[in-house]
Amino acid sequence: QNSMVLSAAIFITLVGLIIYLHFVKIDQESLLVIGSLGIQVTSSYASGKESTTFIEMGQVKDVVINEAIHMQKVIYYLCILLQDPEDPQGVSEVVPLFQSSKPRLDCLIEVYKSCQEILEQTKTAPQPS
Question: Do 10 and 18 meet the contact criterion of CB atoms below 8 Å apart?
Fold first, then answer.
C-alpha cells in the first residue's frame, strides 16, 4: 500500500510539473512594433508553446514605463495604454509587457525610446482618406 501511495504522489508531481511547464513557465517574451499595423506581443513557454497578442495601432494611445512597489522594492515595467473608444482623451485599459522576464530599467528605457520613435512617426505620417 505504501508503494501505491508513493507511485500516486510521483505521478501527481509529474503531471503538475508538465502543466507548470506548458501553461505557466515563460521562457522568452518579445515585442514587435510596426507603425502602420500595430504591436505584437509574443510569449514562448518552456514547453515550446507560444502565445501571441496583437494590438492595432489605432487602439494604442501611448507606451509608458510604470513603477510599482513589490516586497519593499520598486520594480519598473513597460505598459501599453489603450485608447478609450468613447473618450478620446481617456484610457480604457493598461496592458503590461514583459511581466515574466522583468528587465532592468535601462533595458526598458531603450525599448521605450524605440517605441516612442515609431509612435511619433505614426502620428506625423499622413493619414489615408
Answer: no
